[in-house]
Amino acid sequence: MLEEAKFINLSRSALGKCINALAENSAHVPIRDSKLTRLLRDSFGGTATTSLIVTIGPSPRHRGETASTILFGQRVENMLRIKD
């Protein structure tokens, strides 16, 4: 289980790096950093229709994760604006 969580976090991190690079209109997007980003490659550009649903909880003890999730959603929104 711990090994699986490690791979999930690595994939999430790689996805975040790709989203950041695209949102900043970077010349290099690290698509090859994980299997997840390689699978999503066609969704990152061109004429793909992209949707993202982020969920957050109201609990104060999850403030950090909530803020991180909102920021991720904003980065995706910025990426989509550049793509259009």
Task: Give the helices and strands, then pairings.
Layout: H1 2-23, H2 35-39, H3 63-83
Helix pairs in contact: 1-3
How would you portray this structure in words?
The protein has 84 residues and is mainly α. 57% of the residues lie in helices and 0% in strands. Helix 1 packs across helix 3 (63-83). The longest helix has 22 residues, at 2-23. The mean pLDDT is 88.
Main features:
84 residues; mainly alpha; Methane Monooxygenase Hydroxylase, Chain G, domain 1; 3 helices
Shape: globular
Task: Give the overall pLDDT as a whole number.
Answer: 88
Strand content: under 5%
Order of helices and strands: HHH
Tally of helical segments: 3
Q: What's the helical proportion of residues? A: 55-70%
* Main sheet summary: none
Number of strands: 0
- Uncertain segments: none
Q: What is the CATH-assigned architecture?
A: Up-down Bundle
Give the end-to-end Cα distance, rounded to a whole number of Å.
40 Å
Structure described in brief:
It comes from Gossypium darwinii (Darwin's cotton). With 84 residues, this protein is mostly helical.
